[in-house]
Amino acid sequence: MNAVNDFLADKGDLFWTWAVLPVVVVLGLYFTVRTGVVQIRLLPSMVRVLRDPTPRNADGEAQSISAFQAFTVSAASRVGVGNIAGVGTAIVLGGPGAVFWMWLMAIVGGASSFVESTLGQLYKVRDKDGFRGGPAYYMQHGLGRRWVGVLFAVVLIVCFPLAFSSLQANTIVATLESTSGHGGNAMAWGLGLAVAGLTALVIFGGIRRIAQVTESVVPLMALLYLVVGVVIVAQNIGEVPGMIQTIVSDAFTANSATGAAVGSVILAGVKRGMFSNEAGLGSAPNAGASAAVTHPVKQGLVQTLGVYFDTLIVCSITAFIILASQQDYTDAAKGIDLTYGAVTGGLGEWAGWLLAVIIFLLAFSSIIGNYYYGQANVEFISDNPMVLTGFRALACAAVLVGAVLSADVVWTFADGIMGVMALINLISIAVLSGIAFRLLKDYREQSARGEDPVFIRGTVEVPGHVETWASREDVVGPETAARRPRDD
């Protein structure tokens, strides 16, 4: 097993270094310039549109899930193992300097997140629960290349509901074993069965049940973890300036503690950052497309805010918790162990149980969010109900298997498949990015006139097939449209 892991790690590092990383950086900077630094300039709008009311159908029912619910579905996937175990892994591999590159990639990647989620909204389609969409849909309807969409969909299904969800289950088991002091195959299988059972109860209820669960769980888990982090940081408040200085200085130097060269520091930060915030990866647009909003740009902004929430807030708290513990990173275990030791060292052994609860909430919500990404892409490939049922069973089985696998193998496989997925998506949104730029111009012009931006197809030149956005009534709902003058 070690030989397999080493082989995958070596090939994965080469792939990331020479194929994925240059594309991630170059396109992130290009989108930043072309959008006028939208990820920073429109930060107030990101918060504002998060509270937008959901357009309703003629019967008064919400057209689909709300902007906030779409935010929580994507946050459920983003805010998970990557924020706690992933940050620890980045520090083990690259030292504290890796955190700097996580921060930087969150800001640069915010522009990529904006473009992909705006496109996801534009090319969304209707289904029985409301809307669905994502990269596979804009690859078919925007690029006119269904085969590219199918390829992306297959890679995403392998990556998120299978590989990443396995990793979430693996972390739940590792945390509870560390907390209880007990382990073994019996415990791993028992926990795996329990988590798989809970997963089944949620995912067989469709996107509305998934949104209801994430809307409740995500704010709770984030609040609990942030409180733990703030308490530990407050206990070491005098060390915070030194921590920040170490993060920045180590970002540009080889790390003597971990033995990481500068390139390894950067690679560790970028990989773990993308694993955590998913900017440009092609995952968040699947959640963003499911929301009912009045302009595609609104979900582009909401999902960019999700990148900041994930990395600049939650990941930063983890980094400060670890650095405050002043642990020796040399030969430290990857994954959750470093963070677990920092929390219990700062608050006492009792905090291990609190962290176990937080980890469970984080990981379980991520499993649910990951599953929905897979569902949207399974339905893109086939609308046969039996196929979807089979996928649901497979997703639950992946949770069970992940609970008993080696963490190293899961991490390494997830890294590699994530790189493939990111590359397909980034090349696609590069080709389609001009559409997102035009939509942003339309949004800004309407906002400048004091209007709540509404997009109607035909008002902006958009290639390919756009199924929704047919009229003002179609977009805002008949009741709202009746109260406003029609200008379409």
Describe the structure.
The termini are far apart. Helix 4 packs across helix 10, helix 5 (81-94) crosses helix 15 and helix 8 runs antiparallel to helix 16. With 488 residues, the protein is mainly alpha-helical. Helices cover 74% and strands 1% of the residues. The chain has a single domain, classed as Up-down Bundle (Amino acid/polyamine transporter I), CATH 1.20.1740. The chain contains 20 helices and 2 strands.
Could you name the key traits of this structure?
488 residues; two-stranded antiparallel sheet; Amino acid/polyamine transporter I
Short description:
The chain contains 20 helices and two strands.
Map the helices and strands.
Blueprint: H1 2-34, H2 38-41, H3 43-49, H4 67-78, H5 81-94, H6 97-122, E1 125-127, E2 130-132, H7 135-141, H8 146-180, H9 185-203, H10 206-235, H11 240-250, H12 262-277, H13 284-288, H14 296-325, H15 336-347, H16 351-381, H17 385-402, H18 407-448, H19 472-476, H20 478-482
Antiparallel strand pairs: 1-2
Helix pairs in contact: 1-6, 1-18, 3-14, 4-10, 4-14, 4-16, 5-12, 5-14, 5-15, 6-11, 6-12, 6-14, 6-18, 7-8, 8-9, 8-16, 8-17, 8-18, 9-16, 9-17, 10-14, 10-16, 14-15, 16-17
- The portion of residues forming beta strands comes to under 5%
Spell the H/E element sequence.
HHHHHHEEHHHHHHHHHHHHHH
Overall 3D shape: globular
CATH class: Mainly Alpha
Q: Sheet with the most strands?
A: 2 strands, antiparallel
The total count of helices amounts to: 20
Strand-pairing-aware structural class? mainly alpha
CATH architecture, by name, is Up-down Bundle
Rg from Cα: 22 Å
CATH superfamily: Amino acid/polyamine transporter I
Helix content: over 70%
Number of domains: 1
Report the count of strand segments: 2
Low-confidence region ranges = 256-260
Strand order of the largest sheet: 1-2
Which fold does the CATH topology refer to?
Amino acid/polyamine transporter I
Q: How far is the first residue's CA from the last residue's CA?
A: 62 Å
**Average pLDDT figure:** 82
